[in-house]
Amino acid sequence: MDSANLVALSPTNALDERNIFAELESLELPLGTTLRQQPHSPQCHFATENTTNMAESEILECITEHERILQEIESTDTACVGPTLRSVYDDQPNAHKRFMEKLDVRIRNHDREIEKMCNFHHQGFVDAITELLKVRADAEKLMVQVTDTNRRLQDAGKEVTAQTEEMIRCRVQQRNIATTVEKLQLCIPVLEMYSKLKEQLDSKRYYAALKTMEQLENIYIPRVSKYKFCQIMAETLPKLREEIKEISMSDLKDFLESIRKHSDKIGETAMKQAQQHRTFNSAVQKQASMGYGKPLYRLNGKASSPQNGVDEEEEHDDEVLTAQDLVDFSPVFRCLHIYTVLGDRETFENYYRKQRRKQARLVLQPQSSMHETVEGYRKYFNQIVGFFVVEDHILHATQGLVTRAYIDELWNMALYKIIAVLRTHSSYCSDPDLVLELKNLIVIFADTLQGYGFPVNRLFDLLFEIRDQYNETLLKKWAGVFREIFESDNYSPIPVENEEEYKTVISRFPFHDAEIEKQQFPKKLPMSQSVPQVYIQVKEFIYASLKFSESLHRSSTEIDDMLRKSTNLLLTRTLSSCLQNLIKKPHIGLTELVQIIINTTHLEQACKYLEDFITNITNVSPETIHTTRLYGLSTFKDARHAAEGEIYTKLNQKIDEFIQLADYEWTMSESDGRASGYLMDLINFLRSTFQVFTHLPSNNNDHAAMSGKVAQTACMSACKHLSTSLTQMLLDSGLKQISMGAIQQFNLDVIQCELFASSEPVPGFQGDTLQLAFIDLRQLLDLFMVWDWSTYLADYGQPTSKYLRVNPSTALALLEKMKDTSKKNIIFSQFRKNDRDKQKLMETVVKQLRSLVNGMSQHT
Asked: Domain named Exocyst complex subunit EXOC6/Sec15 C-terminal: which ranges (predicted)?
């Protein structure tokens, strides 16, 4: 192969000498072959000639630049030749052609050097090949000998090799067995612990299973962790832990559901025990107050007394149960231990408290009809007590699952809700017995929870609010009782036939009268049947009010004051209202009103006995100064005043009824010579009526003065009203004419009234005080009867005037009525001189009276 072919093999690497030598080494040249240089082609010769013909100045400039580029190409890696070659194209025009010429020159130089080197080393290469050919025959012989020797050696050591392999196999088996035994000794405890774990899980001993898992993970599995079954076992343990957590959480949920269902029973048991304890304490206190030498005692939950003589078997109480006896708390303890071992105790605590808060809200939510029966309240209290008894047990049986601060917070929330619920539902109760039972339940509820360390002062404060409501229901109930008593009363003195009946009455009502006691049977007591009945009912009210005040942890003095306040409300509001309504009833006549006055007087006297009664039942010393007194005195005084006013009103109404029966002939010429029938009936009615006032109580000077004052006031009021009614009858605007005969008839009636007043129908009036009620009417009638106008007009306005009480306007109105009558009779009397003079006088008097009336109006 010539030099041209060598150059063509790697045109891109012609300048790299190492690549050229590698190509030469790969050639298979026959020995003696020499490399020749290929003569230059005519094109290269033509290019050289053309290059030499270029201007000398351009050649000189390019030679230096091309040398630099070729040096960079030879000294630079092939990957970095690009920028250098780019500078060839960025040079002057025809620079590329000159560079190619320069490159060809450089290539030819290198070809010559390569050819010299190959010629220098070629002979040595040929000699080495000749030597190798000579050695080939010896090597083949040696190879045959070695192969034969190896065959014979293999045949000779075949048995030894078999025995050696058997020995090696036995040694390997022995080593494997030893290793296996060693590893099994490590694995067997792991498998035994895992088997134990499975048994514990099957028997639901989860806490022990967790301890076993902890030993497996920390002690046993690390020893054999490289085995697959251990890896599987290690991967299984977290899953088992999660299963245990889920199972324990499921048990906890079942436990929470269980205690929610059993809270009622737990609370009922706890409240029953608290009630038994309170009853026992009350019995001990009662026995101590009675001075027994040997107090009651309790053995094994049995109340006994040495004096009662009752066998223990007959007084056997139910076995005292606790929360643990009614509910199995092991699930919550087990779950707590499991979560503690798993390091997730906080999650468990938060879940437990959250669920219990939800249950608390459900427990505190009452039924809408709870206020209708006491069982509704009892069930509500039982559930709440059961809830907090469970929490108290959890507090003392565990460490930190619930804290005192958490329970206090829960109790404060519950107490706020309980008070709101009781305040709302108790307001719906209208039955005092139901309110009293509610109070007893609240007291037992408070005592029960107080025994577990919960503050209950706000519940007792609530009881005072409910006590006010209880008093309101009592007042409503007793208002109905009083109404029934008053409606069934006959308002007549109580008849007593014998000593037994008399003692029966005075045993019911504190009545003492020396004069009546001296009288022989049968006799009458001044009050009616309603008095002892009202007195007994007031005592019953005090008893009912006392029932609520018991067990409120208040002193006897405080209870005494509360009873007095309640009794005051009964007297001043309920009883007073019933009396006022009774007095205003239309069917109550004057006789009944008089009896009511008598009754209120005796009830007022009995108030001091009611105070003593309150002092006795509250065990307060009589010397104690009470902050509250009974207001019965003012209550019954107001009732008497109302009855007296009603007497006056009814008398006046009766008088008006008689007045309406009057039938005067106002144009009569002469009177009948006797008083009108309606007026005589009226006077007879007044006489019989005022005789009733003699029955008013006059046992002592105060009562005598009071009865006399009532009778006098009624009589004076009746006379004044009668006088006013008669005057209004004369001056009635509907009456247009009055004759002198009618005046005379009217005068006869007034005379009967004056005779009645002078007959002293009611003792106690001084002189002619009662007759003064008719003085205005008497002077007016005298003025017209005597026709003494000159005196009237002359003395008008003087204190000593005979007709001082005759008003000019009144006289003018009556005179004009008589004037109209005279005008009708003027036709028949115009020929009589006296009548004409009288007519002129009348006209003159009318004018003067009018001037007096006008003068009075101007003065006014």
From this structure: 459-817
494-496 and 302-304 as β-strands: parallel, antiparallel, unpaired? unpaired
Q: Transcribe 423-454 into DSSP letters.
A: HHHHTT---HHHHHHHHHHHHHHHHHHHHTT-
Question: Residues of 415-446 as b/e, b for ≥16 C-beta within 10 angstroms?
Answer: bebbeebbeebbeebeebebbbbbbbbbbbbb
Give the model's pLDDT for residue 532.
92
**Residue that has been written with the tokens 């006489």 in this structure:** 687
Residue type, position 854, single letter: N
What is the three-class DSSP state of 304?
Answer: strand
User: Cβ of 89: how many Cβ atoms within 10 Å?
Assistant: 9
DSSP for 671-736, please give it: --SS--HHHHHHHHHHHHHHHHGGGS--SSHHHHHHHHHHHHHHHHHHHHHHHHHHHHHHT-TT--
Phi/psi region, residue 343 (left: phi>0; alpha: psi -120 to 50; beta: rest), is: left
Helix%, strand%, coil% for the chain, nearest 5? 75, 0, 25
Tokens of residue 137, six digits: 């025959």
Contact in structure between 337 and 207 (CB atoms under 8 Å): yes
Q: What is the mean pLDDT of residues 30-58?
A: 43
Determine contact, residues 634/575, Cβ cutoff 8 Å.
no
Q: Are 697 and 707 in contact (CB under 8 A)?
A: yes
CA distance 720 to 539: 44
At residue 782, what is the residue type?
Answer: D
SS3 807: coil
pLDDT of residue 172: 94
List the structure tokens of 800: 């000593």
Look at residue 329 in the predicted model and tell me its pLDDT. 83
Q: Which of 489, 556, 271, 305 is nearest to 387 (CA)?
A: 271
User: CB within 8 A of 248, min separation 6: which ones?
Assistant: 206, 331, 334, 335, 338, 339
Give dist(CA 54, CA 65) in Å, integer. Answer: 17
Q: pTM surpassing 0.70?
A: no
Distance CA 237, CA 197 (A): 10
Rounded Cα distance, 533 and 490, in Å:
13
CB of 850 within 8 A of CB of 812? yes
What distance separates the 2 farthest-apart alpha carbons in the chain? 218
How far, in Å, CA of 82 to CA of 528, rounded?
Answer: 144
The set of residues, in sequence order, having a beta carbon less than 8 Å from that of 563 and lying 6+ positions away, is: 542, 545, 546, 549, 614, 617, 618
- Whole-angstrom distance, CA of residue 334 vs CA of residue 340: 10
What type of residue is 613?
Answer: F
What is the C-alpha to C-alpha distance for residues 3 and 23, in angstroms, rounded to an integer?
A: 12
- Which tokens belong to 189? 């405890």
Q: Where are the alpha helices (DSSP H) in 10-79?
A: 17-26, 42-52, 56-75
Per-residue DSSP letter, 825: T
Tell me the C-alpha distance between 173 and 629, whole Å: 115
Which residue has tokens 């019954």?
636
d(CA 287, CA 290): 5
Name every residue whose Cβ is closer than 8 Å to that of residue 377 and which is 6 or more positions away in sequence.
Answer: 370, 371, 425, 437, 438, 441
Beta carbons of 391 and 359 less than 8 angstroms apart: no
Q: What's the CA gap between 277 and 283, in Å, rounded?
A: 10
- Give the total residue count for the chain: 860
Contacts of residue 553, Cβ cutoff 8 Å, sequence gap at least 6: 460
Query: Pairing between strand 302-304 and 297-299?
Result: antiparallel
Of 849, 744, 858, nearest in space to 806 by CA: 849
pLDDT in tens, 724-778: 999 998 888 888 888 888 889 899 999 999 888 888 888 878 778 888 888 898 9
For residue 280, which amino acid is it?
F
User: What is the C-alpha separation between 432 and 469, in angstroms, rounded?
Assistant: 9
CA–CA separation, 507 vs 501, rounded Å?
10
CA distance 353 to 370: 28
